[in-house]
Design a protein that fits this description.
homodimer, 155 residues, mainly beta, Hypothetical Protein Pfu-838710-001, eight-stranded antiparallel β-barrel, 2 helices, 9 strands, 45% strand, CYTH domain-containing protein (chains A, B)
C-alpha cells in the first residue's frame, strides 16, 4: 500500500509542451461516485494496471496498484468500465527535483489540461514553474473518476 | 480473463459437513449494486486476491482475478470495503467428478448455507447429491455482493 500526496494545477500557455515527452493513456472506472473508493483500469502502451484508491483526506489518499495483462485491461475498458473512458496524453516534465505530469485530455474532456506533482510530504514547499496556473487540488471536478461521469465538455 | 459458469443451491440437513474440509474466508466489496460489475477483495489464510466480475448473463459471468499481498487485502477489508464483510467457512466436497463448494455464512449472514458447483459448459448435466436442495441460481439475493448490503438476518 502506498499513500499518494499530490497537488494539482491548471496550466498556462503552451510552453510546457516542449519541455517533456508524452505517452497516450486510456483508463476507465469500475466504481461510481456513490462508492467510498475508486477502482481504475489503465492501459499505457502494452502496460496495464488496476489501481484502488481510498477517499481523499486533505491531499492524501491510500493507493493500491497491481500490474495486470494488457489484454485484460482492454477487455475491461471495452466491456465493464463506465463511459466515456478517460483518454489523455501525459507529459512528464522535470523541473528542479520534481517530476510534473501534465495531462492533456481528449474526447469528451478535450480542452482540459491539468498539471500534477507528487510530493513526499504534505508540507513540502515547491517551486512552481511559470507555466503552472491556478491550484485545483482537492476540487473533486478535476478527479479523473469525476471526469468520466461529468466530462469537461458538459461543465 | 475467465468466464464463470456456476449453479447455486440451498442445502438440506447436516450430512455434507462430514464430506469435506473447510477454510475460513473473509471478503468484502468495493462496489455497490449501482455499478455494472463487482470488485471483491478476498483473504483466505495468507492468500489474497482482487476479483473483478461483470454482470451475470444467464449463468455466465466474466471474471478477472489477481493475487495481491495479504497485508493489502487486510487493509482494504478494514478501511475501504463496505460493511458488513462476508465471513464464511467454505467446505470443498468431491461428488463424482465435480467439486462442490458449500459456504456456511457467519456474522450478519449466519443461518445461510449455500452450495455452488462450477461447470465447464452451461448445458452440462449434473448429478445432485442428496444433501443438495432448492436451486437458487440467478437469484440476486444470494450473490455475496448482495449479502454484503442486505445480510440474511435482515431478510
Amino acid at each position: 500500500m502506498g499513500v499518494e500526496i499530490e497537488r494539482k494545477f491548471l496550466v498556462k500557455g503552451d510552453r510546457w509542451r516542449s519541455l517533456g515527452s508524452s505517452e497516450f493513456y486510456r483508463q476507465g472506472y469500475l466504481t461510481t461516485a456513490q462508492d467510498g473508493c475508486t477502482v481504475r483500469v489503465r492501459l499505457v502502451g502494452d502496460r496495464a494496471c488496476v489501481t484502488i484508491k481510498g477517499r481523499t483526506v486533505g491531499n492524501r489518499r491510500a493507493e493500491f496498484e497491481y500490474a495486470i495483462p494488457a489484454a485484460d485491461a482492454e477487455e475491461m475498458l471495452d466491456t465493464l468500465c463506465q463511459k466515456p473512458l478517460i483518454e489523455k496524453n501525459r507529459y512528464k516534465i522535470l523541473s528542479g527535483s520534481l517530476v510534473w505530469e501534465v495531462d492533456e485530455f481528449m474526447g469528451e474532456n478535450a480542452g482540459l489540461i491539468v498539471a500534477e506533482v507528487e510530493l513526499s510530504d504534505p508540507q513540502q514547499v515547491i517551486d512552481l514553474p511559470d507555466w503552472v496556473g491556478e491550484e485545483v487540488s482537492g476540487d473533486p471536478r478535476y478527479f479523473n473518476a469525476y471526469l468520466a461521469q461529468q466530462p469537461f465538455s458538459q461543465w
